[in-house]
Every structure is written in C-alpha cells, then in structure tokens.
Amino acid sequence: MLRERRTGSLARMLTLGAVALDEEVVEFRVWAPNAESVEVRVDTVEHGLDRADDGTWSREVSARAGDDYVLVLDGAEALPDPCSRSQPEGLLGPSRVLDTAGFQIAPGPTLALEDLVLYELHVGTFSSERTFDGVVPRLRELRELGVTAIELMPIATFPGNRNWGYDGVYTFAPHRAYGGPEGLARLVDAAHRESLAVILDVVYNHVGPGAEALAAVAPYYDERVDTFWGPALDYAKRGVREWAIQNAELWTRDYRIDGLRIDAVHAVVDNSDPHVLKELRDRVDGIVISEMNHEDLRPLDEWGHDAMWLDKLHHELHVLLTGERRALYESFGSIDGLVRELQRARPERFVVCAQNHDQIGNRALGDRLPADVHRVALACVLFSLGTPLLFMGEEYDERNPFLFFTDHVDRAVADATREGRMREVLRTTGTPGPQPGPQDDRTFERSTLEPRDPDPFFRELIALRSQLPRELDVSADGNRVTMRRGETRLALDFDAMTAELSR
User: Fold this and answer.
1) What is the DSSP-derived secondary structure letter of residue 231?
2) pTM: predicted TM-score of the whole model, two decimal places
3) Which of 152, 242, 480, 493 has CB 3.0 to 4.6 Å from 13, enough for a Cys bridge?
C-alpha cells in the first residue's frame, strides 16, 4: 500500500507515443521498464531508443507524419505502439505517425452542467454510412431538437470492424472503420460549428481481447485482480497511469473534445493516493462524467468529477412501467423510490435516462421500451432537474433494436464472448434464453437507425428545460406522480401509462 501511494505521486512522464516535432523529425517514446533494449523500426530502418530512469525509452528520429512504424523489444517480434495514434490496418498492423497539429477543429461551445442535454450514439449504427462522416448530416436537427452535446460510444481501435467499442485495445487510435483520426476530427469540427459539444466515452477499467502486444511491451496488468472483463490494469505503476491520463489529455487537447464519460469506474482498481481518476480530473480540461453502477459518490465527493451516471432513476421508472422485477431490478419499482430519486440534492450532477445503450442492449433481444411506456419514462427524465441523456432514436421512438454485436477474428474469443454475453443478460435481466449471434452480420445491421421526425412532445419538453425555474416540486397520490416547475406541471399516471403536460 505505501509503495503504491509513493508510486502514484511520482512526476508525470513526457508524452508517450510518436510525436511529430516538425516535418522531418519525430520523437518516439515508449514505456517498457522490463526491456533490455528497444528499437523503433520506421519502414525498414531500426533506430535504437535510449532508456530513462522512469522506464521509458525515447529518441528523435528522422521520420514524418504518415510513416508506419513498429517497436522491437530485445530483438523479438515487431509490435504496435501501445500509445499508437493511428492503426490503419487494425490490431495486428503497424502503427502510423500522426500529426494532430494539422487538424482544423473549431472551438466548442461553453456549457454549464445545467445546460447539458446529452444524446448518446453509436457511430457504426447511427447512419447507413457507419462512419464519423455519416453522423454529420444529422447534427443540425439534433441541435434544433434542443440537444446540446452528442456523446459518442467508444471509438478506440477494437477487434474487427463492428463492436460496441468497450473492447478497445489501442485507445489513442480512432477506429479505422469509422474513418480514423481524420474522420473524428471532422466530426468534432462539424459539431462545434453547430454549437454542439462532444462528449467521448472512454474505457480505463480493462483492455479488450487482442491486447497481447500491450503486455509484451510493458506490465500493464495486475494479474492478482480480476474485473468482470479480465485482469485489472495496474494503476500503481506510473506508466499505466500515464497511459490512461495521457489518453484523456489527447482527446480534449488534440481533438478539442469537450468532455469524457468514463466507463464503469467501479471496476477501476487503484489504491494509490491520489486515485488515478482524481489525477486525471486534475490534468484534463473539459467535463468529466463517471459511470458508477451503485451508490458510490467518490467520483463527485473525492475525485472532483462533474457528474456521474447512476441508473437508479431509470430502474425505478423501468419497474413501475414494465413490472419487470428480476435481477438488477428486484429492489426497485416503488413510487417512494421514484420520488426520492427526483429529489436528489444537486440533481444536475446525475445523468439520468429513460434508456441507454446498456439498458436496451443488455436485453436478450435488444428491445426498446414500448411506445406508451417510453413516453412516460422520457417525459419524466426530461422534466426532471437531472442531466438528461437520450439514446439515439428516442426522440422519434425508434423501433429497431440495439443488439450486442462483435467481429472477433479469433474463434475462441468469439465463443467466450458469446458465453459471457449469455451470463451478462441473465445477470442484468434474469431472463435466460436464445439471443441473436453477436458475430452475425445481421445482428449488427438490424441495430441501424431508421430516422423519422422527432415527437413534438419530446421537443417541447426539451425546450422547457431552459425556460422553467431550476426548482422541482414532486408529489404522489397512489400511482400518480405530479412534477411541478413553476406554473408548469407534468402529471404521470403509472396505472394508465400516461404523461400529461399543462402550463
């Protein structure tokens, strides 16, 4: 414990990865504390790197943006760079030098937490193009709807071409199938020009399958500690901390992304002082939102994060509206519980939703809420003082499912993922049974949106958020809940499944 705390407080490292210093010179730096020698091979030429006391190896080399390179440790096989900015050939290909200084990205809007109306989307299923560029044509309609920030599900390089994104391996490299680094830069620029902020979902609790190269370069994992997805990352080591924190800095600095949503922080194992996610908050500009799956307010009270995902409001609404009371939902579904969630102190610190990628996608058939149920749930969320999040398609009540899909090349990994998926659905919903095959192309294709015009009711509720007082009065009468903000009232009837707005 004392060693971990001492290690955690060491000075930050210089920038890891390949950094173009000018048109002819690139500085390469890699953390490889156990290596006896490290070379970088640019095209066919190998350059020996020099070791520093912090376990990093570096050298300025004659190279330029667009050059491919690999790392060679102790004369063994060539490996991609764990901090690669670009993987144009995927997990197994070489890394590529990227000069992010060439990006032309407009500044983002200035938003207070109370201004946020989040719109979560998956790049691969949001449009028929399945790319960053495919998102751009719909940005204006989202802004006109009243959305103030799009939230991208993870876009780091993962196995294959389709995935939710939480299996990212090369976390600094935007996925090639979506349009790579240049495509992400164009999307952020276009969003900013529409006065939309961009929040990016990042994963620091584990690394996806196919990450053997990371372990071959440096001791990233603590094999003594398991998460639900595999061995934990060892944040007692300075190099692992820098891998995560410098990644966060890259998105907010080089891509001008306005904030980060950090996935499943309850699974980020760290006994250091400061906690790695507190140090991240101290070093990153922009909004930081944490996902926590239980009532643990450390992100807000200790780490200085701006807000957190907490699904309790969702769970109360879901059970009240569907009657499902299994697995994760068994302790929810009371009117008192709903009122309590609506009356949280400083509610803007909690991201609330009627649906999100987990609550839809972790169902066996990826089915969304029925239309009448969805109307009540989303009305409650939008009228609340919490920070609302819409999952893509909710504004017009999308009927296509959002299923779980993967594209693993390794058959053993694909089989293990399918089995793990069945356990996850049982754990979260309590409903075993057949599911669409994650590796089936049709599973991915069925999840693509079919956009329509937004529901005027939802548009009105979003517009009211900035017009009404930031005060909410909630009262209950049996299975009816009345929410008041000033002279405006939203009446929810959980027997009749209705939501009525009066002004």
Assistant:
1) E
2) 0.95
3) 242
Using the structure block, give the residue that is written with the tokens 């760079």.
Answer: 81
Residue 3 has pLDDT above 60, yes or no: no
Q: What is the pLDDT of residue 466?
A: 95
Token pair listed for 44: 């066919």
Split at pLDDT 50, 70, 90, the class of 225 is: confident
| Topology alike, domains 2-102 and 115-467 | no
Mean pLDDT for 54-58 is 97
Instruction: Give the tens place of pLDDT for each residue, 421-462.
Output: 777 777 777 776 678 999 999 999 999 999 999 999 999 999
106-155 per-position pLDDT tens digit: 999 998 999 999 999 999 999 999 999 999 999 999 999 999 999 999 99
- Determine the Cα–Cα distance for residues 29 and 55; give it in Å rounded to an integer: 10
Hey, is 478 helix, strand or coil? coil
What residue has token string 């900013």? Answer: 192
Active-site residues, by number, are: 263, 291
For range 300-313, the mean pLDDT = 97
Distance CA 140, CA 128 (A): 18
- Given a contact cutoff of 8 angstroms between Cβ atoms, the answer to whether 62 and 21 are in contact is no
DSSP state of 394: G
Provide the residue ranges of all domains of the chain, joining segments of one domain with +: 2-102, 115-467
DSSP class per residue in 110-174: P--GGG--EEEE-HHHHSTT-SHHHHGGGHHHHHHHT--EEEEPP-EE-SSS---STT-SEEEEE
Angle CA(136)–CA(157)–CA(219) in degrees, nearest 5?
150
Angle at 348 between CA 483 and CA 458, to 5 degrees: 55
CATH superfamily, with its number, for domain 2-102: Immunoglobulins (2.60.40.10)
Angle between helices 312-322 and 335-342 (to 10 degrees): 150
Q: Does domain 115-467 have CATH number 3.40.190.100?
A: no
